[in-house]
């Protein structure tokens, strides 16, 4: 069986299990379940702390796992990302009280508090900055107020919690993160079970990003309409009972669907419909 690590809690857990469910895999119904066997798909899921997943995968005990890019890099584990999943996006940045510093070049001799010591230490080393890094679990916004550090480094989504603590974001982003699939470095890249798993997840990503669009179009307008809806290879075109009309079916990007529908209508297309795609293989 393919052995896969899944986040057991936090912002990664729910979306990861939802994606796996959409990909046709069984998922646990109770949060107390630590292991779930899906015999139909020949997969065994292990629900682990997101921060530990890269370490388990790098050990070879598990074949692949879902975690955050930030957690992967912070772990220092011998694992690599092989697929981006498009959820749990965040930016990792420095913050401090106004007037303290403008970026890493000003951090010399300062102390930086973070839950991601590995990432920060590597970033400072790359920048040639000598500063102390103190590891704190959980929220680090109070570290400056309590005198533990002069700067913090943390995941920033909206920045509201930082502003509420009287802090400002400084410098360029340290890194951007999202959920990723990881495997051990040096693992065989052509494992058929792993490739099937990746194809399923890629199918979910495509299904979420596209809709199927159907519409009726006059033959004389067909070339202009097809230019708006080229599809992946090409659209499906079928003659209608009324002479001079054809039916067109094509995949279009979901975020562009409304604009394309407007443009098609202006061309004279009618009966323009969109339907969700629940699964696909490209």
UniProtKB/TrEMBL annotation:
Is Repeat a UniProt keyword of this protein?
no
Q: What is its EC number?
A: 2.4.2.17
Q: Which domain of life is it from?
A: Bacteria
Please give the chief subcellular localization of this protein: cytoplasm
Residue ranges annotated as coiled coil are none
Q: Which residues form the Histidine biosynthesis HisG C-terminal domain?
A: 207-278
Where does the UniProt annotation locate this protein? Cytoplasm
State a single Pfam family of this protein: HisG
Q: Activity regulation per the record?
A: Feedback inhibited by histidine.
Give the signal sequence positions: none
Catalysis performed (reactions): 1-(5-phospho-beta-D-ribosyl)-ATP + diphosphate = 5-phospho-alpha-D-ribose 1-diphosphate + ATP
Sorted UniProt keywords: Amino-acid biosynthesis, ATP-binding, Cytoplasm, Glycosyltransferase, Histidine biosynthesis, Magnesium, Metal-binding, Nucleotide-binding, Transferase
Cofactors needed by this protein, per the record, are:
Mg(2+)
UniProt GO MF annotations: ATP phosphoribosyltransferase activity
UniProt domain ATP phosphoribosyltransferase catalytic: residue ranges: 49-203
- Which pathway is recorded for this entry? Amino-acid biosynthesis; L-histidine biosynthesis; L-histidine from 5-phospho-alpha-D-ribose 1-diphosphate: step 1/9
InterPro entries from the entry? Answer: ATP-PRT_HisG_long, ATP_PRibTrfase_cat, ATP_PRibTrfase_HisG, HisG_C, N-reg_PII-like_a/b, N-reg_PII/ATP_PRibTrfase_C
For the keyword tRNA processing, the answer is no
Q: Say which family it is in.
A: Belongs to the ATP phosphoribosyltransferase family. Long subfamily.
- Record's function text: Catalyzes the condensation of ATP and 5-phosphoribose 1-diphosphate to form N'-(5'-phosphoribosyl)-ATP (PR-ATP). Has a crucial role in the pathway because the rate of histidine biosynthesis seems to be controlled primarily by regulation of HisG enzymatic activity.
What is the official name of this protein in its record? ATP phosphoribosyltransferase
Q: Which gene encodes it?
A: hisG
């Amino acid at each position: 069986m393919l052995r896969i690590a899944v986040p057991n809690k936090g912002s990664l857990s729910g979306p990861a299990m939802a994606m796996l469910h959409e990909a046709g895999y069984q998922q646990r119904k109770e949060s107390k379940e630590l292991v779930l066997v899906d015999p139909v798909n020949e997969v065994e899921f292990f629900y682990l702390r997101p921060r530990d997943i890269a370490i388990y995968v790098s050990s070879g005990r598990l074949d692949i796992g879902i975690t955050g890019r930030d957690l992967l890099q912070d772990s220092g584990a011998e694992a690599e990302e092989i697929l981006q999943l498009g959820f749990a996006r965040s930016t990792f940045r420095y913050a401090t009280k106004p007037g303290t510093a403008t970026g890493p070049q000003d951090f010399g001799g300062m102390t930086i508090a973070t839950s991601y010591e590995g990432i920060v230490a590597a970033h400072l080393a790359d920048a040639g900055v000598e500063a102390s890094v103190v590891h704190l679990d959980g929220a680090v916004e109070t570290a400056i107020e309590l005198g533990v550090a002069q700067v913090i480094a943390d995941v920033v989504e909206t920045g509201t919690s930082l502003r509420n603590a009287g802090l400002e974001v400084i410098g360029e982003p340290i890194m951007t993160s999202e959920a990723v699939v990881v495997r051990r470095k040096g693992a065989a890249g052509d494992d058929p079970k792993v490739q099937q798993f990746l194809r399923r997840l890629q199918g979910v990503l495509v299904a979420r990003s596209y809709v199927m669009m159907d519409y009726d179009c006059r033959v004389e307008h067909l070339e202009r309409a097809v230019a708006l809806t080229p599809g992946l290879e090409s659209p499906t075109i079928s003659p209608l009972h009324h002479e001079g009309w054809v039916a067109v079916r094509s995949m279009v990007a979901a975020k562009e669907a409304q604009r394309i529908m407007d443009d098609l209508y202006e061309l004279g297309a009618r009966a323009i419909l969109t339907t969700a795609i629940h699964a696909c293989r490209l």
